[in-house]
Amino acid sequence: MRQLLRLKLKSRPVLVKLLSSFCIIIVLFSSFSMFSYYFFQKNIHDEIITYNETNMANTTRNFEQYFQLLDSVMVNFYLSNDYINNTQSQNLNYAQASGLITDLQRLITNQHLYINNILVYDMRFNTVFDKTRGGSPEQVFNEYFRNPEYTADFWKQEFASTSYLKMYPAASFKQQSTYSALSDSVHALPYMVKSKVYPDFAILVLIRTDELFENFHQSINNNFYILDPQGGPLLTNINAEGITLPSVQPGESWIKDGHNYYFYRTGGNTGYTYINIVPDEQISSRASFNVTLTVLFIIALIISIVSSIFFSMRFNNPVKEIVASIRQLNTSPGTKHVNEFELIRNSIHSMVKANQEYQDLEEKKALLRYYDYVNRLKNIRGNSSESLEFNSEQRPYRFILFQLNYTAQFFEASIGKEDKTAYYIREYINLTMRNAATNTYTFQIENNQILSIVYEEANHPDLLDSLTQILNVLGEDKEYCFLTIAVSSRYEESADMTKAYDQVLDLLKYRPFHDQPQILDEQRKTLDGFIPATSLIEEINFHLKNGNYELVVQAVSRILQQMEKNQAGTYLFYNMGEEIRSKVNRILHDTKGSTVPPMPVEQIHTVEQLTQYLEGIIQEATMATKSQKIEQGSIVGFVITYIEEHFAEDITLDGVAEKLNITGRYLSTHFKEKTGINFIDKLNEVRIEKAKEQLRSSELAIHEIANKTGYYSLSSFNRMFKKFTGVTPSEYRRHASQSQNYI
């Protein structure tokens, strides 16, 4: 019974299985979506709470930093203002009072303080100053800055109190300008600042509450409170009448009361309590159930079910045809009751296995063919059956050798990618050549060389078109790698393969010396021999030994120009470069005991590149020769002459040593041994002598003479002058003037 049930399940139609699978997936995804929605609904609520807490923390930090900045500014104003610091004056100093008003104006114009006005009360003269005027407290607070609660008597009482820093509840002040009879209203937060050091003064700062709120308050709504440490309101931007603020539990930063969320923060510096009120509807609306989302979910569910039925039927039809075809080919008993997918899987597995065996056989055959061709090119005898099979092929053929010439730009951009580049180029060449000639074998013979052996047939198309196509396609990237193609003559016997290979190598060896893609054959041969004039070689040897860089370069350039004019091959240019390098190495070995590294032929493809390389090593050799001559001559004489001619410049020991191509340490020791004094002492000696001459013969200021003699610091000049003469520059000039007058 169990076996029949298992067989029935296995033979169930594909359509039923597909439809069941789709339905299970739909149910799983639907369940997951519903669970995710309700799970993340709570997370959204928590995120909104966290967002408001973060905004409240940022708002508190902004206000606290502002109040701390305001305290610092006011304390600094106390300490720096001349009027306040003039405590000895018995009468009102109008000049200093004017300066006080100017300082107030400058302070108020600071946009980061958000100050409407600053009132400075001088208890000594019962005078209040603001940014435009001064007057009695009664005049200022009852006429210019009017508020029913903040009268002149109120402020006098507060100024006389023992409080030094106190914030008062924000209020609206009627302001009247000195120059206008009109008045305007400003909502400001009064802030009193007093100092124990200056008990006769009190400063009242009127802070613009609208700008303060706009710049520092961060929230999704504008319901905001600031309470003083005693719980009294200081600032609010809503009508606070009838509103009772709930208390929050210790350690909590928010509480929900009624239809509002209350977020609390207490400032660490001021002790003020900052409260932000967010209506419950603003938070709940973002985390509530969305009817539109539900409708979309139901529509998506219906579409999923319909799509499952549609695609199951579409998929079932071709599967039925495939299974029917397999069963017709496989007539073994029992296939009718085998699961369709199992039947397809077994058939595909058999085909893949057969294909792999065929590919393995082809790869082994290609590998044998590759080794056979390499053996023939290298004249290595083999006795494999594959080799005998190839030897029996007596068909005309040609060798086509592709050489990849990488430029310096390639090595800068693709370090270590030569193998991968060669692989892709080989695959492209193989594909193109096989399309042109069926019997073509392409393989990589060297790191930068790809060889194609093309067996010609009666209806063989012209290979030049295919080679030109390869040249044009790969020529798109010639700034990184350019291609040189060498085509051999036609050979009839397989025994001539080595000869054909040598021919294409010879064509590459004497290719034209430039960096353009090209196709070479017997008709495009270049000069295979060049002997430069003996006089030019002798000229190069002579000027190298004497360190004449320009003359050596000129002689080498003339040789390269002659070779280019005579169309010498690449091999001859490389030989000439190696000959110049050997001459340079002999010079460097005799002078420095070193040599230059081998010539990077893989990066030199033009006369300009070869010239640039040779100029570099020639310069190194001529500099070594000059350095040896300078060291063998009078180093001390050069140093003294250089100091005499450049004493006004910034001269250093290392700078002079670099001009001699020696180290600063060697120059210092050598100069001390030859002259008995240090290099720096000699430099200062020459500079002081020049300064003495100018002090005697000119009317220049002493600091100008110091600059003209290489001293950019007057104190350094005076100290060094007194060290060498025993007197200061001023004393020296005075004595020199007296001596001239006496004469």
| Total of helices | 26
DSSP strand content: 5-15%
| Average of the residue pLDDT scores | 80
Number of strands: 18
Low-confidence stretches: 4-11, 381-392
Q: What is the helix fraction of residues, given as a range? A: 55-70%
Structural class call reads: alpha+beta
> Which of globular, elongated, flat, extended, rod-shaped describes the shape?
flat
Describe this structure in words.
This is HTH araC/xylS-type domain-containing protein. The chain crosses the membrane at residues 21-40, 289-311. InterPro entries: Homeodomain-like_sf, HTH_AraC, HTH_AraC-typ_CS, Tscrpt_reg_AraC-type_HTH. Residues 637-735 form the HTH araC/xylS-type domain. The chain is an alpha+beta fold and 743 residues long. The chain is flat. Helices cover 57% and strands 14% of the residues.
Give keywords.
26 helices; transmembrane; 18 strands; HTH araC/xylS-type domain-containing protein; 14% strand; alpha+beta; 57% helix; transcription regulation; 743 residues; Tscrpt_reg_AraC-type_HTH
Fold topology:
Elements: H1 2-10, H2 14-80, H3 82-85, H4 94-108, E1 115-122, E2 127-129, E3 134-135, H5 137-144, E4 145-146, H6 152-159, E5 165-167, E6 171-176, E7 183-194, E8 201-208, H7 209-216, E9 224-227, E10 233-236, E11 254-257, E12 260-266, E13 273-279, H8 280-287, H9 291-329, H10 340-377, H11 385-391, E14 397-406, H12 408-413, H13 418-436, E15 440-446, E16 449-455, H14 463-474, E17 481-487, H15 497-509, E18 518-520, H16 534-546, H17 549-565, H18 570-591, H19 607-632, H20 635-646, H21 653-660, H22 664-675, H23 679-697, H24 702-708, H25 714-725, H26 729-742
Parallel strand pairs: 17-18
Antiparallel strand pairs: 1-2, 1-8, 2-3, 4-6, 5-7, 6-7, 7-8, 9-10, 9-13, 11-12, 12-13, 14-16, 14-17, 15-16
Helix pairs in contact: 2-8, 2-9, 5-6, 9-10, 13-14, 16-17, 16-19, 17-19, 18-19, 21-22
